[in-house]
Design brief:
43% helix; alpha/beta; 7-stranded parallel β-sheet; 7 helices; oxidoreductase; 3-oxoacyl-[acyl-carrier-protein] reductase (NADPH) activity; binds NADP nicotinamide-adenine-dinucleotide phosphate; Rossmann fold; NAD(P)-bd_dom_sf
Length: 240
Amino acid sequence: MGQSIKGKIAYITGASSGIGKATAIELAKQGVNIGLLARSEQKLKDVSERIQNLGVSSQYQVVDISDETQVDNAITQLEGLLGKADILINNAGISTYGNVDEVTSAEWKQIFHVNVFGTYHVTRRVLPHMKEKNQGDIIMISSSNGLKGTAGSTAYSGSKFAIQGMAEALMQEVRPNNIRVFTMNPSLVATELVFGNDLSEKNEDKFMQPEDLAEYIVSQLKLHPRIFIKQSLQWATNPF
Ligand SMILES: NC(=O)c1ccc[n+]([C@@H]2O[C@H](COP(=O)([O-])OP(=O)(O)OC[C@H]3O[C@@H](n4cnc5c(N)ncnc54)[C@H](OP(=O)(O)O)[C@@H]3O)[C@@H](O)[C@H]2O)c1
């Protein structure tokens, strides 16, 4: 039952830290070759070297996914250096906190530029190849905030609700092409997005860790190609 993912090629956005980095490492342990995308070159280089030491191929591209031209160029480069993607993990995202009249208009819009338009830019560039070969896997990282808004998160929740709608519609569009679209909605995960640079705050007994999400991503991808998990929610068991 299920399938091996060894030898496949995965592109991961936001692979320089947190969930994206942990997923890159976990997939590499399964023999998946990895294309890493994010803005921080040194971090990408470090992750890429770590992955190569696990015996798979890895390439990275420095890219701001909110810029469509940069995305087109980065994916073209990855396709040449590594091969075209069998798996796309739409993980890159940013957050801000503050009531609607406190967050600046520029900050508010930037959340949508990265989380919504960035996800669109990468997906539209990678999809034609998946359609051509009539197979592929796309994982969308939305959030518990993409299902339930909370005070102080109009931009973040709005963007994650938008990803929810995009993912649902995309899933319906590409099912006939045997492309599986999985949408994940984690609650709090101990990453820089939540704790900034001070990850000493992350309490491994209480909070979900990026490695937990990575394990779940791998297990979804290993499902038999005839089945996928349309939507899932990841909760910490006892964060109180
Ligand atoms: N942590 C949580 O509690 C939680 C809960 C639910 C959902 N999520 C979602 O999980 C995803 C990953 O977040 P994380 O928690 O792992 O946080 P993280 O450690 O801050 O990772 C975010 C990643 O996105 C990249 N990124 C940000 N802006 C980008 C841009 N313009 N272009 C390209 N890459 C960009 C960052 O890399 P660079 O800075 O190098 O570009 C980084 O690799 C996000 O979509 C987040 O909304 C997180």
